[in-house]
Amino acid sequence: MTFSPNLEAGLSYRRSSIQEASPAGLVVILYDLLIADLQAATAAMRDGRMEDRCARLKHGLLVLQVLESSLDLEHGGETALILSRFYAYLRNQMLTAHYQRDPRILEEAIARVLDVREAWRVADLKSKPDAGTPLVVESVAAAASALENVGWSA
């Protein structure tokens, strides 16, 4: 299959970003995908494009599943439990928005995801070699504390 040069360049850049990402950086990439899916689903919902809305929400649910499957509930302590509950909350919001056809529900979810994504981005920056290497627990705890800072509770 042949792709356009722009698409090839984009795929190459994304592939390189993924290969070079730290564990926290991979989580940021997943959050970026989830945010893009939620934003596209919101736009499709507002424009009455049911097929696009369904496709983007389905992809978003798959991304959410990847995030959930990366949690270590046995060893991750309270932070892993908080993130697990957050992901369950997001799934519920996505399904509720889909059935009620209410883009405002997705917009609220996007705001929450953006806050947690920012915490992961900061954790990723702190894990760079020139910034010292914090414990993984500290990185995950930063993301979990962002949930508390935005008024969400498990």
How would you describe this structure in keywords?
154 residues; Four Helix Bundle (Hemerythrin (Met), subunit A); 0% strand
Descriptive account of the structure:
This protein has 154 residues and is mostly helical. The chain has one domain: Four Helix Bundle (Hemerythrin (Met), subunit A) (Up-down Bundle). The protein is 80% helix and 0% strand. The protein has 6 helices and no strands. Helix 2 runs antiparallel to helix 5. The longest helix is centred in the N-terminal third of the chain and has 25 residues.
| Low-confidence parts | 131-136
User: How many whole angstroms does the radius of gyration measure?
Assistant: 17 Å
The rough form would be described as: globular
Which architecture per CATH? Up-down Bundle
Order of helices and strands: HHHHHH
Helical content class = over 70%
The CATH homologous superfamily: Flagellar protein FliS
Structural class: mainly alpha
- Count of discrete alpha- or pi-helical segments spanning 4 or more residues: 6
Number of strands: 0
In what range is the share of β-strand residues?
A: under 5%
Secondary-structure blueprint:
Elements: H1 5-20, H2 23-47, H3 50-69, H4 77-100, H5 103-126, H6 136-149
